Amino acid sequence: MTPEQAFDHYHQAVYDFAFRLTRRAELAEDITQECFLAFVRAPGRYDPLRGSVKTFLFAIARNLTLKYYRDCPAEEGLDEAVAAPAFDPRQSMDAASAVAAAVAALPPFQQEALVLFEYAGSSLEEIAQIAGADVGTVKSRLHRARARLRRSLAPYGRNLHGVVGK
Amino acid sequence: MESLENNELPEQELDRLLREWKARPAPEGLRRKVFPAQERWWRGFWSTSIRVPLPVACCLLIVLAVMAWQRRVPSPAPSVASPSSLSPSSAEMPRFEAVRELQPRIIREQDAQ
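^ inputs. structure came back:
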């Protein structure tokens, strides 16, 4: 697969992944651009034996996103033990914004596992390859992320219109 | 609030809520940023700019002005060197001497035969 073909197939997915993790459009654009430029500059770095082009590209995007977390002091918390900013379900917002805020409140490793599984359609094995972790760890992160979301988004489950706090 | 926090969403309800968060479309100009070579060359030609330091620009202008002035002023006719100026020492050929008096001799065709 040429870089152009890879771009056509995956740029939307990579951008969406970066945006959901950073919640900043310009940053997500930069990450996507850097991700594909890395592939264009050194296509030989991709080894088909180690995984698909999709996993390769998502791994680059993930590393760039983690670099952003490291460089930005306000977004510290790579370690799952670090407390994430609290999500207050009492704030009035629509369901989509509430989900975005609740996901943002997850620790980064749980966020990436959830976003890759729920929104990028990646399998547990693919997420493990992207995150450089074993499948068991990914499963555990995903389970904890969903458990947290079930609690934090509980008020929205009862409200069919998707708005609370009004 | 306490009762809300103790409750948990069912799995299906969580899946439904997660689907509410829609994907954001990627910006349209992204491809051009990744593959700029595919742009037409003349577009770049018309939009490319260069930065020239002011002293360099001033020097270039002065050089161009001098060149233009020199082309407008006619150059003086080439001076003919006098025989006296061609001294053996100035020619740096010690075995040759400059002709002091020119005595031309016309050789006609009959004379040659």
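Confidence is low (pLDDT under 50) at residues 1-5 of chain B. DSSP finds seven helices and no strands in chain B.
thumbs up if we can close this ticket
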